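Tip: read the tokens left to right.
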């Protein structure tokens, strides 16, 4: 009996399609001296050159590259936040894109990441990365961080995890991450909570998931008119001058970086309570860097018209207050619910 069989090899799986959006930052920085980077200029290297410095990317993903901005992230603006959020949402809504990577400066990365965490309306991966050393420095950390970010964006495990930060082999939740060093390549940590997982040598592993609502489950957008929200700080001998000037300028919201558990100097607290009575949203946060600021109930926060930030830093509390006020959440109970939820 003659028998014959036929078989065909399975077609290779198409590589994920990842959009890389460059905004500038140290990762795109250049210095005249590779051994002395004190005078480097941020954001001068284009996205094509950044990608060319990372061998092996074409084996991980099909790359679509765009230059969104070329700034030092200390100069991040609300208008650029709107532009970036809109572009990310447009790309992730397309069937042609499976994930997004954003290269960013380290100075305001945690703020941009949290803003996108609340305004991106897709479960597809959205990853931010950066560098502490400019591209021309000895042992520049940007290429490996970018490789890991693309690896993470191409991983199915990253879907539905909200906006993530890939830095120094760790995976951080945008809500938790903070810059904790002025110089170290391990500059980003997630105080109290810890990293979500790690990415190394092409392997992605998550140890936990973020529990608070984000992205598709958050009601916020980065479109439209931005309210005016500023940050003031409590410290020994602080005056009322900053609060009074900001109220006179028409501020919509104030975040106070308090001492300890969000405690506020008596004179500053009185000026903030007067601002709250005039309709200014006031949020208590802490300048400490870790821990939480708990709502202290009817006798204090409620009586003064204050909202507590929970575990959000003053800078991320400002991001949430901006979005909440823009969404029409103006009463203290509604704002407190937003801070307790997101």
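Filled-in amino acids:
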């Amino acid at each position: 009996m003659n028998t014959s069989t036929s078989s065909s090899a399975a077609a290779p799986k198409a590589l994920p399609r990842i959009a890389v959006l460059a905004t500038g930052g140290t990762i795109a920085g250049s210095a005249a001296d590779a051994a002395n980077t004190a005078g480097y200029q941020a954001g001068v290297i284009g996205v094509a050159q950044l990608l060319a410095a990372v061998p092996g990317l074409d084996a991980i993903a099909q790359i679509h590259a765009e230059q969104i901005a070329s700034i030092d992230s200390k100069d991040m603006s609300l208008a650029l936040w709107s532009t970036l959020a809109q572009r990310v949402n447009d790309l992730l809504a397309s069937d042609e894109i499976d994930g997004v990577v954003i290269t960013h400066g380290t100075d305001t990365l945690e703020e941009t990441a949290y803003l996108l965490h609340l305004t991106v309306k897709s479960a597809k991966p959205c990853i931010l990365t950066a560098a502490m050393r400019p591209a021309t420095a000895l042992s520049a950390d940007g290429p490996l961080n970018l490789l890991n970010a693309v690896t993470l964006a191409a991983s199915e495990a990253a879907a539905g995890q909200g906006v993530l930060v890939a830095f120094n082999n760790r995976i951080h939740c945008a809500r938790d991450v903070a810059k904790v060093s002025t110089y170290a390549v391990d500059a980003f940590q997630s105080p109290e909570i810890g990293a979500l997982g790690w990415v190394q040598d092409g392997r992605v592993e998550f140890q936990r998931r973020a529990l608070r609502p984000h992205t598709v489950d958050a009601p916020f957008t980065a479109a439209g008119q931005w309210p005016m929200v500023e940050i003031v700080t409590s410290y020994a001998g602080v005056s009322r001058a900053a609060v009074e000037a900001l109220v006179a300028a028409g501020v919509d919201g104030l975040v106070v970086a308090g001492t300890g558990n969000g405690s506020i100097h008596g004179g500053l607290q009185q000026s903030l309570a007067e601002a709250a009575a005039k309709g200014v949203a006031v949020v208590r946060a802490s300048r400490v860097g870790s821990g939480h600021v708990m709502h202290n109930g009817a006798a204090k926060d409620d009586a003064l018209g204050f909202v507590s930030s929970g575990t959000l830093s003053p800078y991320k509390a400002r991001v949430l207050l901006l979005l909440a006020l823009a969404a029409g959440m103006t009463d203290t109970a509604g704002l407190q619910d937003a801070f307790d939820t997101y």
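Residues 17-217 form a domain with the Rossmann fold fold (CATH 3.40.50.1170). Confidence is low (pLDDT under 50) at residues 1-7.
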